[in-house]
Amino acid sequence: IEIEGDNLTASCEERFEGTRWTSTFSSRFIEEITHRTGNFKSFAVFVQMLFDALLDTDQQEAVQDNTTVTVDILTGRDLELLRHRNGGGVPPSQSTSRSLPDSEAKRYLILTYQSRDTFTSELMQHLSPQASYDRVHYPLALARQEPGSDAAALLRTIKRLSRELKDVYRSSRGGSQIVTRSVDSECAVAADPVPSSRAAPSKKLIARLEEENERLVRRCAELQNEVDHRGSRGGARGQQVSELKRLRETNSRLHGDLKQLREAKMRQAQLVETG
To answer: What is the maximum alpha-carbon separation in the chain?
Structure first.
């Protein structure tokens, strides 16, 4: 979530594929959305609610006694199912949902505001929960953005990926030696087929990915500067577009490596638990 003046930009990203959905909304649009729900909120209040919803549950409970705000990201099919549940009608079939034009083109950020009447008795809350709660959904549609089409977004993705790789590696080192060796072996076969007698494959794998990430971070920063400087002068951007394409492909490969590492670790952890 980014706030710039009277504009709010919301983005979400698919963790492994790197696909992003993002949109920018004016304060006037946000207030119009809240007005349509029958529970008007000013732009400033809406922004505060959104940030509160992104807090951890414990933090949220500490700052809110009788209200709850949550955020959900829904697909087109999710939204249709929600509408069916709330308003009745025939639920959409899987074939129908696949034919929806925005099934992948959009994601929906749903900010849900729920207030509780403090004067409602505990008995009434138990007998009729809906009577004691006022729940309002504020929907925002996010448009699909091609992976790697924006250098700044790709840079953020690569930085996050680098942090996750380090976290996974630290976690694997903190486990038992049996788990670590098994994960090392599976990762060596999946991503870096080097005999285990030569070195610790997982350590080499992480080192290689981190080194490649660092190089990509530097190149993305350079590329973003080039785009910023040349874009205003209308210069040729073919080279930048080609470079972004290569970065996108490398970024997708790194996502795959991270996914394989995590899956291998989870499988071995399950084997240890069952054994």
So the answer is: 70
- Mapped onto helix, strand or coil, the DSSP state of residue 6 is coil
Q: Which of 81, 76, 79 is nearest to 92 (CA)?
A: 81
Q: Is 12 helix (H, G, I), strand (E, B) or coil?
A: strand
Q: Within 13 Å and on the Cβ side, how many CA atoms surround 150?
A: 14
CA nearest 137: which of 82, 183, 84?
82
pTM: 0.51
The string of pLDDT tens digits covering residues 218-242 is: 666 666 666 666 555 555 456 666 6
- Check: CB of residue 151 under 8 Å from CB of residue 224: yes
Structure confidence by residue, pLDDT tens digits, 108-148: 999 999 876 544 444 444 444 444 457 899 999 999 876 55
The Cα-based distances of 247 to 31, 176, 244, 261 in angstroms read 39, 36, 5, 21
Which two structure tokens, joined as six digits, stand for 215? 């190089």
The percent helix, strand, coil of the chain (3-state, each to 5) is: 60, 20, 25
User: Angle at Cα 54 formed by Cα 52 and Cα 58, nearest 5°?
Assistant: 75
Radius of gyration of the chain (CA): 24
Tokens for 196?
């285990």
Which 8-state DSSP code applies to residue 91? Answer: P
Q: Are 22 and 10 in contact (CB under 8 A)?
A: yes
Residue type, 138: Y
End-to-end CA distance of the chain, in Å?
Answer: 44
> What ranges do the domains of the chain cover?
2-145, 151-274
| Residue-wise burial string across 91-108, b where 16 or more C-beta atoms lie within 10 A, e elsewhere | ebeeeebeebeeeeebbb
